[in-house]
Specification:
The complex is a heterodimer. Chain A is mostly helical. Chain A has 15 helices and no strands. Classes of the chains: A mainly alpha, B mainly alpha.
């Protein structure tokens, strides 16, 4: 009975196992493993209906974007760069153009799919690179401390002094990078957030007993960081990623809208809006559609991030 | 306190130096140069181009140019624009008040909306109101500002005029007609400021809600209730004041994002401010203006950080830095 009060808070854990006094469960093969951290987190995530819906929407968007070729071939029958100038500014659902055409007579739906590839590619690549750079620097800084920490944090301070969008506009306008280079640039200026986060967590974890124990047994620094500290940080990184990607999508869209990001003729959701801006009197659909696409994607990923944060946070007594 | 401020100001000096170096390095790494516009012209002889280059001082080694630039900087001389020859300092000072007006109004509007809603949402936790506020805040915070700005212009300026409603102007800071009074300025200000404030509303709303929730959970709030104080008093006098402190820091830290957003807003609404100046300079490769504008943004960011730290120390008697 005393055991039951101790584990009373882990009621969800108990729900998966047979009663404790069922001694024959092991032999009968009915004893299931206690769900692990990620399984419990997934269960919590599943219970949040909004986040689940958002996850479905995100998957749909990614599928739409990945299947751009398929859509171009079978659904619309147009590609994203050939324009028929006689078909300018067709409204949606006319003449076989499902979402209408833009200023050059190109099919909007196809361009939306291909443009999504570029937008999501840039955001994903930038986020991943920033994650790699930032978590490495943060971990090294937090683990070793001392001069390394001071120097690295000074660099972070300098980078944080200039507003993110300003320096991006500066660099993008001057160098006119392609999508991959743009992603690298975004990462080069955006890793500071992760670095600070990781550094804080590493600082708090490094003083724990199991790290000391590992060191006593003779583990090298690299092994301690990689095998012991990092796995504890992964939930944090996942949440950061799910919140950083929407921001990066918005940033890329803003840059392309200003004319500094992905340049025409490569489509991206941002520069579709740039083209539409000049001709909004001719076609409002051109202004609305890419913006709605950006909005839905960003909102969905943000809501998934909120759900992830609630699911992965161990301090659940809200 | 004074020692703290002085120490921070002294620390800002190497940071500023680092920033000047970064801006200078970026601008000078760019392929091409200010005289590139001449090189494409077939009627310009090579020696003329060389003469222009040496007149502008562009054939000096870059460390020397950097030192000259920083030296002039300390006298307040930011150089002259490559495109129209006007002094950079003059151009910046002419448009800086507009940007400050826009950013200030946006901050004010954002605070006006975010603080009451955040407090109310925290006080009525998990009610329908709270959930609604949370979802609406996330929805607002996910929106692409430039798209909303564009739609707002189309709706409130163009369509309203078509439909015969009183409409807002399409852009600019004031009208060219005689009515340049306060009302006219306000009419021009409201759309850009609200659009700029949207993102801030979302993030500050969620932040102050979280902050209030944390404060409400603390023991001294429970004590206040136990003493018999009414709900209103506890919330507004005790909880709210404590929850406000992190918000002050947050405002200082997110002010640079507002400056960044101002770039886009000023571009869309043709608002004659520093963001638009910088974007135009970046488009036309006007290097001196670019360097001057971005340096100024960095300085404003640093000052905003310093201000928020100082405000935090002023508001919270528990914090003593020296």
């Amino acid at each position: 009975m005393a055991q039951q009060t101790d584990v009373a808070s882990n009621r969800s854990m108990l729900a998966d196992r047979p009663a404790r006094d069922d001694a024959g469960a092991l032999e009968r093969g009915q004893l299931r493993a206690t769900p692990g951290f990620y399984q419990r987190a997934w269960r919590r995530f599943r219970r949040d209906r909004i986040s689940l819906a958002a996850l479905v929407v995100t998957i749909l968007v990614v599928a739409f974007v990945l299947g751009a070729d398929v859509i171009a071939r079978y659904v619309t029958g147009h590609d994203y760069y050939t324009g028929n100038l006689f078909d300018q500014f067709k409204p949606p659902l006319t003449d076989g153009y499902i979402l209408g055409t833009d200023v050059n007579g190109r099919d909007v739906l196809t361009r939306l799919a291909y443009g999504g590839r570029v937008s999501l590619l840039v955001a994903g690549l930038a986020g991943t690179t920033a994650l790699l750079i930032g978590s490495t620097i943060g971990a090294v800084s937090g683990y070793f401390g001392g001069v390394t920490d001071a120097v690295l944090m000074r660099i972070v301070d300098v980078l944080l002094c200039v507003p993110f969008l300003s320096i991006l506009i500066l660099v993008a306008a001057l160098f006119r990078p392609g999508p991959v280079a743009l992603a690298i640039i975004l990462a080069l200026f955006g890793w500071t957030g992760v670095a600070r986060l990781v550094r804080g967590e590493v600082l708090s974890i490094r003083s724990r007993d199991f790290v000391d124990a590992s060191r006593v047994v003779g583990a090298t620094d690299a092994r301690i960081i990689w095998k012991h500290i990092m796995p504890n940080i992964v939930p944090l990184l996942v949440v950061w990623m799910s919140l950083a990607i929407p921001g990066l999508i918005l940033t890329e869209a803003a840059l392309s809208f200003l004319g500094f990001g992905v340049t025409i003729p490569t489509p991206s959701w941002g520069n579709m809006l740039q083209g539409a801006r000049d001709y909004y009197t001719r076609s409002i659909a051109n202004v609305i559609i890419p913006g709605v696409m950006i909005y839905i994607t960003v909102l969905a990923i943000n809501l998934v991030g909120k759900g992830l944060r609630d699911a992965l946070d161990p301090r659940l007594n809200d | 306190m004074l020692r703290f401020i002085i120490r921070r100001l002294l620390l800002m000096v190497p940071l500023l130096l680092g920033i000047t170096f970064m801006v200078f390095a970026i601008v000078n790494l760019v392929p091409g140069s200010p005289v590139a516009q001449f090189e494409a012209n077939p009627r310009m002889s090579q020696e003329d181009i060389e003469r222009i280059r040496s007149n502008l001082g562009l054939d000096e080694p870059w460390p020397k140019r950097y030192v000259i630039w920083v030296g002039n900087l300390l006298h307040g001389d930011l150089g002259y624009s490559y495109i129209n020859g006007v002094s950079v300092t003059e151009q910046i000072l002419a448009v800086l008040p507009n940007t400050l007006l826009l950013t200030g109004t946006a901050t004010f509007i954002a605070l006006l909306v975010a603080v009451p809603l955040g407090v109310l949402a925290a006080v009525h936790r998990n009610s329908w109101f709270d959930n609604l506020v949370y979802v609406v805040a996330t929805a607002i915070g996910s929106v692409p500002t430039f798209w909303v700005g564009l739609l707002a212009i189309i709706l409130f300026a163009v369509k309203f005029q078509e439909w015969g409603f009183p409409s807002l102007p399409v852009g600019g800071t004031s009208s060219f007609r005689d009515e340049t009074g306060l009302l006219d300025r306000l009419r021009h200000l409201i759309l850009p400021a609200v659009t700029l404030g949207l993102l801030s509303i979302a993030s500050w709303l969620l932040y102050i809600r979280a902050s209030m929730l944390e404060v409400i959970r603390q023991d001294f709030i429970r004590t206040a209730y136990a003493k018999g104080l009414g709900g209103r008093v506890v919330v507004y006098e005790h909880a709210f004041r404590n929850a406000l402190l992190p918000l002050v820091t947050l405002i200082g830290l997110t002010l640079p994002d507002l400056f960044g957003g101002a770039f886009i807003i000023e571009f869309i609404f043709s608002w004659n401010g520093m963001g638009r100046l910088a974007v135009n300079a970046a488009t036309s490769s006007d290097y001196t203006v670019i360097m001057g504008a971005f340096l100024l943004f960095a300085v404003m960011t640093l000052l905003a950080n310093l201000l928020s730290d100082v405000m935090y120390a002023v508001l919270d008697p528990r914090i003593r830095y020296d």
